[in-house]
Amino acid sequence: MSESSGPAVTEHPAPERPGAGRDRAASGRPAPRLGRPRRPAVYAAAAGGAVLLALPFYLDRFWLQAGLLAMAAAIGAIGLNLLTGATGQLSLGHAFFLAVGAYGYCVLAGDGGDGAGEPAGLGLPSWLAVVLAVLLAGAAGGAFSPIAGRLRGAYLGIATLGLIFVGQHVLFNAHHLTGGYNGRAVPPLSLFGITFDDSETVVAAVPFQAMEKLWYAGLVLLALCVLFARGVLRGRPGRAMHAIRDHRIAAGVMGVPVARHRAAVFVLSSMYAGLAGVLLALVLQQAVPEYFGLVLSLEYLAMIVIGGLGSVAGAVAGAAFVTLLPQVLTRYSEALPLVSAPGTGGVAPGEMSRYLYGAAIVAVVLFLPGGLVRLAARRGPLMKDEA
Q1: CB 86, CB 235: distance < 8 Å
Q2: Angle, CA of 46, 47 and 48, to the nearest 5°
Q3: φ and ψ of 149, to 5 deg
Q4: Backbone dihedral angles phi then psi of residue 243, each to the nearest 5 degrees
Q5: Alpha-carbon separation of residue 210 from 105, 124, 223, 335 (angstroms)
Q6: How far apart are CA 30 and CA 20, in angstroms?
Q7: Which pTM was predicted?
């Protein structure tokens, strides 16, 4: 007789015991990834990029200039977030390095003075002047880096605050370089045979002027800065920066050169600020010393706090909020309550924007410590970042 085969028995794996995930992490074996797919984030990024590329065909000069100011602010805010958000070094002198980049470009690319009060210039090719201006800002950060490598907290903030006063004194009094109180004109950028000024450039039967041409240059610069910063934060330097921020003494015990990393991050942050200053000068077409003061440094701190400390996406979001808010209030002041032109009895758009900055900072600190990027992360993975 043949044996009758019974019903097939399906073996189910035993449930994982509690704490097995911790044991797996301790043994070095990778845990299974259960996160949501990132395909929606890719689609959203592609859609956002397409919108940004198409905006110059639909926006007027006012909004293109506002968007370019936001791009320049985003580049500078990324640099400050690497320093303050990721490494924990407080800096109140970020505007100083923006001024170094802006005026460095003007001096390097400008024509020589005529001896009758015209600011001096070296007359270098403008593309080379951009590179050298960024390196000059990095060199200024490097000269300050020994102090930045040894101070921390409020002491470093006070030390960097001194850079603002030194910079303002130089900008107002070095007339042969900066033009004094009235500032100096910014030479236009020329690259690949294209001059980024108001002369009309026709591409595929479409005319482009200064703001349209600078828009695409700003997008390229911002994209490169975002990608580089994300690579830094996701690699070994980023882990060392976070270790220094959270456990400085423990990081030193584990072999992390704390002073060296702090100095290097300060130099990198200064170079980001120098590039932001160059783009800012190209957009405004006039470099004025009064702009690069303490208020600008405080606005950059507001950007990274509102957007999210330690996050590249948060720096971009905070820069857009802080930069575009006064532009919106200025454009629509007649339709907004309590907001009016200066001297007409209401609150000026710039003053109202600072009130809103303060309210936003208080709201973020109390109710949303991670900033705007954390609010977006709660709704989906689109803004999920390395923070």
Answers
A1: no
A2: 90
A3: -75, -15
A4: -65, -40
A5: 18, 21, 20, 30
A6: 12
A7: 0.83
pLDDT (average), residues 217-229? 94
Cβ-contact 77, 304 below 8 angstroms: yes
Amino acid at 303: M
Q: Which residue has the tokens 């702009």?
A: 291
Q: Minimal CA–CA distance to 70: which of 218, 255, 256? A: 218
Question: For residue 251, what are its two tokens?
Answer: 């990081």
Contact 218, 225 (CB under 8 A): no
Q: Which two tokens stand for residue 88?
A: 């924990």
pLDDT digits (tens, 9 = 90+) for 8-44: 444 445 555 555 454 444 444 444 454 444 577 677 7
Buried b (16+ CB within 10 A) or exposed e, 239-252: ebbbbbbeebeebe
Least confident segment among 139-143, 224-228, 328-332: 328-332
Contact 265, 50 (CB under 8 A): no
Q: In whole angstroms, how large is the CA radius of gyration of the chain? A: 25
- Secondary structure of residue 274 in the 3-state scheme: helix
Per-residue pLDDT tens for 44-93?
778 888 888 888 888 888 899 999 999 999 999 999 999 998 888 889 99
Mean pLDDT of 324-340: 78
Q: Cα 103–99–124 angle (5° rounding)?
A: 25
Tokens representing 121 are 């210039």
Planar angle of CA 213, 216, 220, nearest 5 degrees = 140
**The amino acid at 53:** L
Band of residue 212 on the pLDDT scale cut at 50, 70, 90: confident
> Cα dist. 233→24, 111, 281, 313 in Å?
25, 40, 28, 12
Q: Output the CA torsion 289→297→52→309 (10° steps).
A: 170
Token pair of 270, please?
């200064």
Crossing angle, helix 94-109 and helix 294-307, to 10 degrees?
A: 120
The secondary structure element, H or E, covering residue 163 is: helix 154-173
